[in-house]
C-alpha cells in the first residue's frame, strides 16, 4: 500500500470526470489539495488524459490516477475503489458524478431507454455509495460522499421521465445513506444543478438555444461547471460536517425547497 503524499488532504475519487461537471470537480479538488482518482468509460481515454495533464501541469504536487470503468457494473466500482486505495493508501472523498440523460417523451421512452438511464444514474450511484462507504467505515476516519442529482430530481420536467425518476432516486439514496453513515463521521450529500454548460446540456438543446433555460432562472443565466465544483469543494471540507442528507440546488434560483 502506497501512502499519500504528506501534504495531501486525502484521496478523492470522481466518476465521469472526463468532461463537464466531473472534470471541473476533479480539477477543483486537486487544487484544494486532494490526490485525485479520475474515472470514466474507456471510450473517454483521450479526455481523461487531458484532465490528468491539466491537473499535473497546474498542481504538480498532486498525484493523479486514471481508472477506466463503467459505474453501472458492480465489479468496476469495486475495482475503482480498490485501485484508489492500492495506489494512494486511502479513500476520503467519493463523488458519484457519472450520469446520462436520454431526452424522450414518456410515450416514446422504451424499456431499454429506461433501464439504461436507471442503470447508470441509480445503480451506479448505489454501487458508488455502497463501496465507498464500506471502505471509509473500514478506515474508521469518516469521509465525504457526494452524489449527482438534478433540478430534475426535485420537479418533473418534460421529455425526461427516466432521467427525473433516476435523479429523484439519487435524493432517496442520499438521505438513506446519510442516516446510516452519520455516526461513522461520513456525510452524504448531492448537488442538484439546473442548466449547466456541459456536453450533456449541449446534447439536449438543438442549435445551442439556451434562452428558455436562462429565462427560467432567477439570475437569468446558465450555470458553469465551476458553480457546481465550488459547492462540492465546500461539502467535502471538515467545516461541512453538520450538512448531510441534503440535495443542494445549484440552479440560479429555479427551484426553491
Ligand atoms: N449539465 C447539466 O445541466 C446537469 C444538470 C443537472 C444534473 N447534471 C448531472 O451532473 C452529472 C454530470 O453531468 P455533465 O453535464 O457533466 O454530463 P456530461 O455528459 O458532460 O459528462 C458525464 C460524464 O460521465 C461519463 N459517464 C457516462 N456514463 C458512465 C458510466 N456508466 N460510467 C462512468 N462514466 C460514465 C460520460 O462519459 C461523461 O464523461 C450527471 O450525473 C448529470 O446527470 C447535469
From TrEMBL:
GO terms for molecular function: oxidoreductase activity. Keywords: NADP, Oxidoreductase. Gene3D superfamilies: NAD(P)-binding Rossmann-like Domain. The keyword Cytoplasm does not apply. SUPFAM superfamilies: NAD(P)-binding Rossmann-fold domains. Belongs to the short-chain dehydrogenases/reductases (SDR) family. This is Uncharacterized protein.
Amino acid at each position: 500500500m502506497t501512502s499519500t503524499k504528506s501534504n495531501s488532504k486525502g484521496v478523492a475519487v470522481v466518476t465521469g470526470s472526463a468532461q463537464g461537471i466531473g472534470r471541473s470537480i476533479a480539477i477543483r479538488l486537486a487544487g484544494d489539495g486532494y490526490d485525485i482518482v479520475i474515472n470514466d468509460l474507456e471510450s473517454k481515454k483521450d479526455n481523461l488524459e487531458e484532465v490528468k495533464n491539466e491537473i499535473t501541469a497546474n498542481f504538480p504536487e498532486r498525484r493523479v490516477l486514471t481508472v477506466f470503468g463503467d459505474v453501472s457494473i458492480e465489479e468496476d466500482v469495486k475495482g475503482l475503489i480498490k485501485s484508489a486505495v492500492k495506489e494512494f493508501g486511502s479513500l476520503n472523498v467519493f463523488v458519484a458524478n457519472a450520469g446520462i440523460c436520454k431526452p424522450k417523451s414518456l410515450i416514446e421512452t422504451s424499456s431499454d431507454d429506461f433501464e439504461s438511464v436507471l442503470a447508470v444514474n441509480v445503480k451506479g450511484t448505489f454501487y458508488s455509495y455502497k463501496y465507498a462507504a464500506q471502505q471509509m467505515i473500514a478506515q474508521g476516519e469518516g469521509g465525504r460522499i457526494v452524489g449527482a442529482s438534478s433540478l430534475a430530481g426535485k420537479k418533473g420536467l418534460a421529455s425526461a421521465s427516466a432521467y427525473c425518476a433516476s435523479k429523484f432516486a439519487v435524493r432517496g439514496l442520499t438521505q438513506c445513506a446519510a442516516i446510516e453513515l452519520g455516526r461513522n463521521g461520513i456525510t452524504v450529500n448531492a448537488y442538484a444543478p439546473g442548466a449547466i454548460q456541459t456536453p450533456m446540456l449541449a446534447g439536449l438543446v438543438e442549435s445551442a438555444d439556451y434562452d428558455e433555460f436562462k429565462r427560467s432562472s432567477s439570475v437569468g443565466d446558465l450555470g458553469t461547471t465551476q458553480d457546481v465544483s465550488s459547492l462540492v469543494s465546500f461539502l467535502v471540507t471538515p467545516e461541512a460536517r453538520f450538512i448531510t442528507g441534503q440535495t443542494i440546488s445549484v440552479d440560479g434560483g429555479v427551484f426553491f425547497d
